[in-house]
Amino acid sequence: MAETPYGGTRKYQWALDGLSLFFVASTVVWLHLDCLPPTWDDGFYLTNSLTMFDSLVDGGLLGYARKFLSTWGGKPPLIAVLPTPAYLILGRHAQFAYSVNLCFMLVLFVALFRLASKYAGPRVGLIAVYVAGTMPMLFGLSRWFLVEYAMAALVAVAVLCLAQSEMLWFGIICGLGLLLKASFPLYVAAPFLHWTVTAWPGRVWLRTCLALAPAVLLPLPWYAINYRRAFQTAIEAGGHSLPQYGYASASSYFWRLVNEGPALYYATLVTLSIVTVALSRKAPDRKGSATAVVWLAPFAFFVFGPFQEPRYTAPLLPGFALLLALVLDAACAAFGRWRNTATCALLAFPLIAMLQSSFGVFGSWDASSSRYTRKYNEYSWPQREILQRLDGTGKLLIASDTPHFNVNNFELAALELRSPVEVTTSAYEDNLEALLRQLDIAAFFVYKDGGSERGSWFFNRHGDALISEVKNQDFIEFPDHPRLPDGGVARIFRNASPNELLRSGTFVPASLGQLTDCQVVFDDQLQLIGFSVKQRAGGLEVKYRWRCLRPPDREYWCFTHVIDEQERIVGYLDHEILGGSPPMITWRKDDLAIERLRLRSAAIQEKTKYRLRMGLFHRPSGVRLPVTGASLPLTDRGTAVYLGTS
User: Fold this and answer.
1) Pair (396, 345) in one structural domain
2) Which of 228-232, 270-274, 358-362 is least confident?
3) Which one, of 335, 325, 343, 316, lies nearest residue 284 by Cα?
């Protein structure tokens, strides 16, 4: 039969297409049936993907590029960029971002099939694809919007490029991988070292180095700007989750990785196959086996290393699928003409377990104990409903932190609804006084009361204290409580008198009026007509007086950089003017606003002179307003002015 681009005959291409279609279709059906909101990390990535798309719509390609180069909390931005085509074609809804996983699923299957076919033929390629499609960790992560499934596909392509000595493509894949996650080199280092030992002597050194240039050049712009934060994030990865999920010894964590990754059944099957092959002396392809073993080498790092998060091993699992396919095919050769029947019988259970874990088609028994696999849930949570009830603007403080009731999925819901409410959380803050200040200015307060879903006590230490404070303060509770699928209810409160900097009819202290007059016009929309910068021990106090020249066309933030005598930035006072209350787009001509800001920082030295660099910008796109008139020194190509301290 004719050869196909996949490296096998036409019947194997049909089989590969059929398997791929089945796994993609099952994922699409599961995503359609499941109504649970995303959890923490996937909610974060989905929110950023919509933010990236909005920066393209609002700011064009220039705004999109600026947002791409943003810090992103130290996490590389590619995963947030990839859904943009889906949003352009299908619409602005986070659900369409999961099409990225479907594309990477096909990439993974084709790469794994070609790799296995290269070493042992298309039959082994089909087995490898089947194993990858039914492995709990991999099919589970295909339904989460995280970087690990995309990483698994790119690592598989990178290993295929090494096997075919396609070094230019290997460099490109490594560059893209670094834009997915800073740890990408960890997964391809051992295969690359193996390639250098086995193939390097026959290659031209300079040509190979030039071919690897994309691995550096593609991620260089983002890392050049964000390298410090990215390095810190990479070092701390997984560390914060240890106290919540518990520390584990190397042996117990090994079994956890085996159980949640390939599953005990596949681990047992590969062990029995290796024993059978050893006894029968019918060894599988040596090059293929060596490739699979070096691919799996970083597994030891995760067992004995500091990052005890099982999903970090997902990019290694296609290597396990390759190894199992090779040894299982060699072991089943002993069955002669019953070889295919024996292979199908041995591989039947993982498919049954996948269907049971995903859809519960065979009763109520639990087929998987992996944290990333579960049956679809038809009950939705009321994040959108809660946000729609808040008929105002300002800050919403979330005092609960559970998998499906947290700041990340509330932020995502607010972004999808284009809600004017800014979502904040009591989680991740150790200072109770800081949280009480947040509570004081919050317009709304929400927490989860009761229910079976376990809260994160470690990340949300002061949630209960805030709830007690709200019950003792001037907060008004909404009369009805939205019910939650886990049996709890959402308690919603409105702050009757948020501590805003300036409110209509409010008494203005004399201290707020003691400002230095100035005239700084921003795009003929807003004007800074007064300021004060006072240096105090361990911090600065800054006051601004604003005047509206004409209604602004969008919400603008004020950026304020504290500059020392060596022109270094030692602090930031970037903020939404008046906390967004009232929203800037509601301002009218000649409206005035006065605000006072404080920066407390050990970096502010008492005997050092500082000055401020300030201006206005549109936060989603990063575009600054030009200064069209100023009585103060201009900087940053006419988009900022300098303010002196007193």
Assistant:
1) no
2) 228-232
3) 325
Overall average pLDDT of the 546-560 stretch: 92
Query: How many distinct structural domains can be found in the chain?
Result: 3
Examine the domain organization and report whether 196 and 284 are in the same domain: yes
Q: In terms of DSSP H, where are the helices of 333-375?
A: 339-359
In a domain, 2, yes or no: no
Q: Is 496 exposed, middle or buried (0-12, 13-18, 19+ CB in 10 A)?
A: exposed
Q: Using an 8 Å Cβ cutoff, are 473 and 498 in contact? A: no
pLDDT of residue 2: 47
For residue 2, give the H/E element and its range. Answer: none
Let me know if residue 239 belongs to a domain.
Answer: no
| Of 8, 322, 285, the residue nearest 119 (C-alpha) | 285
Task: Report d(CA 414, CA 418) in Å as an integer.
Answer: 6
Q: What is the CATH number of the domain that holds 527?
A: 2.60.40.10
Domain end call among 326, 359, 392: 359
Confidence band, pLDDT 50/70/90 cuts, at residue 431: confident
83 DSSP assignment: T
Q: 417: domain range? A: 383-495
DSSP assignment of 529-571: EEEEEEEETTEEEEEEEEEESS--SS--EEEEEEE-TTS-EEE
User: Cα(173)–Cα(157) distance, rounded to whole angstroms?
Assistant: 7
Length of the chain: 646
Are both 564 and 425 inside the same structural domain?
A: no
The pLDDT tens digits for 562-613 are 998 888 888 888 899 988 878 888 888 999 998 888 787 777 887 788 899 9
Kind and range of the H or E element at 91?
none
Does the structure show a pLDDT above 70 at 227? Answer: yes
Same domain, 185 and 290: yes
Find the DSSP H helices in 249-361.
250-260, 263-280, 286-295, 299-304, 317-332, 339-359
Cβ–Cβ < 8 Å for 291, 115: yes
Q: Is residue 524 part of a domain?
A: yes
Q: Are both 491 and 514 inside the same structural domain?
A: no
Residue 390: in which H helix or E strand, if any?
none
CATH of the domain at 430: 3.40.190
As a whole number of angstroms, the distance between CA 643 and CA 646 comes to: 10
The residue among 142, 133, 152, 147 whose CA lies nearest residue 372 is 142
d(CA 515, CA 501): 16
Instruction: Pick the closest to residue 471 from 490, 448, 442, 491 (CA basis).
Output: 491
- The single-letter code of the amino acid at 432 is L
Quick: pLDDT tens for 54-102. 999 999 999 999 999 987 778 999 999 999 999 999 999 999 999 999 9
Six-digit token string for 509: 């202290």
- The answer to whether residues 190 and 56 belong to one domain is yes
Report yes or no on 243 lying in a domain. Answer: no
Are 122 and 263 in a shared domain?
Answer: yes
Compute CA 5 distance to the chain's CA centroid, rounded to the nearest angstrom.
34
The answer to whether residues 131 and 196 belong to one domain is yes
Q: Of 461, 495, 529, which one is at a domain's C-terminal end?
A: 495
Q: Closest by alpha carbon to 165, among 129, 107, 212?
A: 212
